[in-house]
Structure of Alcohol dehydrogenase, iron-dependent:
Amino acid sequence: MFSYEMPTKVFFGRDCLQHSGEAISALGHKAMLVTGRRSAKANGAQDAVQACLRNLEIDWCLFDEVESNPSIETVRRAANLAKAEACDVIIAIGGGSPMDAGKVIALLCTNTLDDERLFTGPYARPLPIVTVPTTAGTGSEVTKVGVLTNHCKGTKESVADPLLFPTLSYVDPSFTMSVSEKVTIDTAIDALSHAVEGYLSKKATPMSDVWAEEAMRFIGGHLTELKGKLPYSVREDLLYGSMLAGITIAQTGTTLVHGMGYQLTYYKDLSHGRANGLLLPAYMALMSETMPHKTERIWDILSLSGITDFRALMVDLMPERVALTAAEIDAYVELTMRKTSVAVTAYPVKAAVVAELYKSLS
């Protein structure tokens, strides 16, 4: 048997806020807009949300201090502001960082949680959450997870609960048109990683596999086109594929790639997507040993001949290498082995296996 839960209502397409924004009016009377410092303003998403709220006569306040890989301290500061402003709905605008932060802010507005219970629960229902993605990568607009940087533990950790599924998501490819080449590559590979990891997870189901294969089809068709200026049609496919990959991991979670990648992001300042991308080739080589039928299906969907072809593609997109010291590898292995993603990886993951994967980055 398997279960399936996807309570988020999605509006997808150009100007979806303009056409369907009235759904927000049922959620509250005052919104907190959660963004980073610049991108939501530059790409027009913040203006579109504010125009929608003006038309609905909904007041708002702005928290635009979300950093890449948001910290516990940041979401606590934002939640305090939301409570002081009597906000009753959270609207998160941006890439994965603002959306993940927005979910946890909504949770902290209705729950008193110390840093330990923040990641374990149990939780009372958060404020309603609305997401407006502006990158095609994390799929956070359709997941039940908010990932935070935990400086006390020296890694990233997930706050995960079905209560964190956004109520509404407005997925407009127009907001991704100005994304830089580097971020386009990083986020597309992050989305690909979600689809691949979900497909190869021990928790994969027949329904999650449908979403994963569709995600890989929409993303894979453009992997050789990620450099340079992209037309709207490609941006639309990438965002749609990213959303489908998010639906996949909402059912399966992620696997070893994410568990290892968090250390590269925290200590080596690699973006989340780039950390995943650098690890994917060696991971896929492992998975071909235990799930050959599925890895062959992946190569078919991506129109690749196999692992050698895939590795060459990833090196072309992400040519840098990461040389880790023996001490760093030991520390990262220890942190990785604590992650729940290890247990759902369809490979007998031992510390020595993780160490070899980190060594493969150099």
Notes: The mean pLDDT is 97. The radius of gyration is 19 Å. Residues 9-175 form a domain with the Rossmann fold fold (CATH 3.40.50.1970).
